[in-house]
Design brief:
heterodimer; A: about 375 residues; D-amino Acid Aminotransferase, Chain A, domain 1; Dna Ligase, domain 1; Rossmann fold; 11 helices; B: alpha/beta; 9 helices; about 35% helix; about 25% strand; globular
């Protein structure tokens, strides 16, 4: 779960990491009093995407009327495909230097890595590898004072700024660990008026750990159909084609999309019913697919824990409750295959054994090329 | 031979009295796996599927020689169970559990590294050395002995490929499911190294997915270190960037982990690439090694 910048900065303050003074607003009029209080301000669109500056989502103002106008030009508008519903107004800092600092869970290292650079700011992705400091962190050791000194040395921080950095970094790591973060990123971490300040905050929380983070704000990126699927334990992603797809397991579901594409079809979704879906879940998945009005449905099951007869039962159950008026192609292999195929045959429905054949048939049906 | 596990491997099942633990213990026993003990705190002294149950892994290890463990423990308690198994001296631990928090997985991996233990998973279907030992949840009937070694991120996709292979008359030496999570214990290189040395494995199949960089790293390694033929299938060719497709691994970010990048790297390393999963048996036939 990604957090908005202002939520990230709330967390920073809780963990003693300095942030600029500011306020989040939802209507342009609120920009007036905030600007009067803060003076020179920066007006930042709150969307779950980077590169906001380049998309025109960050503006400056030194009086209320300009700030209101800027907020008006951002609120409700689209940036990088996302609509801005909130704006963060902050004091504009007299920036002397922009640094980059992040802690990320890195798969290939099987643990956290600290990333830092003297060359922070908008173009961090173009900074050469050699100018990015990378320090894997032993999760059982954490960030000790020596590591703070070492990173500060490499960032060429001295004197009071080095002291501030050595105080801030362990706090950032504590936040990363205690809040189950996949990533905390400060870009830029600025030096302004002799102070180290987090001018931005990008935080991603591990979805699998949300159950033990009850007091974090909830941010929902999924659309309505995706949320509905999530609630019944299915993994669903909407795509822009017209062939609805259901398979069991993420890998085989992706492979199914690939095969449909290969034969010239266009998948309407990714729906992974999981490795061990039962009759109820499978029926719910099918209902969800029907609700998206596809031209054809392809059910591709290689049953390991999933039982083919459960899938057949689920299909027959949904089929008897409502008239399914789109063609459905079912491929059933694996655990209890014979029982599943027989159940379908008794109702005059053919189950395919091979993925290739079934996929070709589905594409032909979606294109209206066969009855 | 085979890799990681064989007919001598003695296994302890953590969470043996739960629904999943009990069912899969039964399936593993049917397959021929030597399960010597089960663990379920508070249920020591009982039996499950004919296997003696202990209160802790330490207690089980005191009574039996155990070489490997398998975890059927809910995500919230999996870290504790895995650390216990490692602390009790197990050198191979298969972690079936899905939805384990990343920070928990990182702690498990760090401790395993200190103790020299190998973790398979989490979020894996397990590992099977065909005809000898199965530690996992894969359907028994498809895993018959043969010369093909398989290493995969995804479970059901491996079944699809194993199913196609057995239809074409090819059996498997060992099939390793690395797991679909961002942090897992094994990478492709760990498994490729073992297959290279295994006399039973004549050809290696690598089943990957978009996202991450492990396929690219594997390609680099294969170029220098693997003499056996490698066939690869990468799922997710048609997935749009930035969308999370079920597995934490299957997401393309910042232009990294793309299908084309992986395919190019693998081809440059001399790997035979299957565009679709059911092409794998034909590619093996065309190698003319059997």
């Amino acid at each position: 779960m990604k957090l908005f910048e202002y939520m990230g900065k709330d967390l920073f303050r809780q963990y003693g990491i300095p942030t600029p003074k500011g306020k989040v607003i939802r209507t342009a009029g609120e920009a007036g009093p905030v600007t009067e209080e803060l003076g020179n301000v920066v007006i930042k669109t709150q969307i779950l995407s980077g590169k906001r500056g380049k998309a025109g989502g960050i503006k400056f103002a030194d009086q209320s009327s300009d700030a209101i106008e800027a907020a008006n030009s951002i609120l409700g508008k689209e940036f990088n495909g996302l609509v801005a519903e909130e704006v963060l107004i902050e004091e504009k800092l007299p920036i002397e230097k922009e640094l980059y600092l992040a802690i990320v869970m890195e798969g290939s290292l099987r643990g956290p890595i600290l990333l830092a650079s003297q060359y922070g700011g908008m173009d961090i992705e173009e900074v050469p590898e050699a100018n990015i400091i990378k320090m894997p962190i032993d999760i059982h050791v954490g960030i000790q004072p020596y590591l703070c000194r070492e990173i500060a040395r490499k960032l060429e921080l001295t004197g009071d700024i080095q002291q501030q950095f050595s105080k801030m970094l362990p706090n950032l790591y504590r936040l990363f660990k205690e809040r189950d973060c996949e990533m905390v990123e400060i870009n830029p971490l600025v030096i302004a008026d002799g102070k180290l300040v987090a001018a931005d905050a990008k935080i991603t929380i591990d979805d699998e750990a949300l159950y033990r983070q009850p007091d974090l704000p909830k941010v929902e990126e999924r659309n309505e159909a995706e949320q509905k699927a999530h609630a019944i334990g299915l993994s669903f992603v909407q795509l822009d084609g017209d062939i609805a797809i259901m398979a069991n397991g993420a890998g085989i579901t992706m492979a199914t999309l690939d095969v449909i594409n290969h034969y010239g079809g266009s998948p309407a979704n990714f729906l992974d019913a999981g490795g061990g879906a039962n009759v109820e879940q499978t029926a719910a998945a099918l209902e969800l697919l029907l609700s998206t009005n596809p031209k054809a449905i392809f059910i591709n099951i290689f049953g390991g824990i999933t039982r083919c007869d459960d899938v057949a039962r689920a299909f027959l159950q949904v089929n008897s409750q409502k008239s399914i008026d789109v063609p459905v192609v079912i491929r059933l292999v694996g655990t209890n295959q014979e029982a599943g195929v027989k159940l379908l045959q008794e109702q005059g429905i053919v189950a395919y054994e091979h993925m290739q054949e079934a996929a070709m048939k589905t594409v032909a049906l979606a294109k209206g090329m066969v009855e | 031979m085979a890799i990681f596990i064989n007919s001598d491997t003695r296994v302890v099942v953590q969470g043996i009295t739960g629904k999943q633990g009990r069912f899969h213990t039964q399936q593993m026993l049917k397959y021929g796996t030597k399960i010597v003990a089960g663990v379920s705190p508070g249920k020591g002294g009982q039996e499950a599927e004919g296997v003696p149950v202990y209160d802790s892994v330490f207690a089980a290890a005191k009574e039996h020689q155990v070489d490997a463990g398998v975890l059927f423990i809910p995500a919230a308690f999996a870290k504790d169970a895995a650390l216990e198994a490692i602390d009790a001296g197990l050198k191979l631990l298969v972690c079936i559990t899905e939805h384990i928090p990343l920070h928990d997985a990182a702690e498990i991996m760090a401790f395993a590294k200190k103790r020299g233990a190998t973790i398979v998973g989490p979020n894996t279907f397990g590992i099977v050395s065909s005809g000898q030992c199965k530690i996992g949840i894969m359907p028994n009937q498809f895993f018959t002995p043969g010369p093909v070694g398989i290493v995969a991120r995804s479970g059901t996709l491996s079944y699809e490929i194993v199913g196609n292979l057995s239809h074409a008359g090819f059996g498997t030496s060992t099939v390793v499911g690395m797991g679909g999570d961002r942090i897992v214990g094994l990478n492709f290189i760990d498994v490729l190294t073992q297959f290279e040395q295994d006399p039973d494995t004549k050809v290696i199949i690598l089943v990957g997915e978009i996202g991450g960089s492990s396929e690219e790293e594997a390609a680099e390694y294969i170029k220098e270190n693997i003499s056996k033929p490698v066939v690869a299938y990468i799922a997710g060719q048609s997935a749009p960037p930035g969308k999370r497709m079920g597995h934490a691994g299957a997401i393309i970010e910042r232009g990294k982990g793309t299908y084309q990048g992986k395919i190019d790297a693998l081809k440059a390393a001399g790997v035979h690439v299957a565009a679709l999963p059911y092409e794998v048996p034909n590619i093996i036939r065309e190698l003319n090694i059997f």
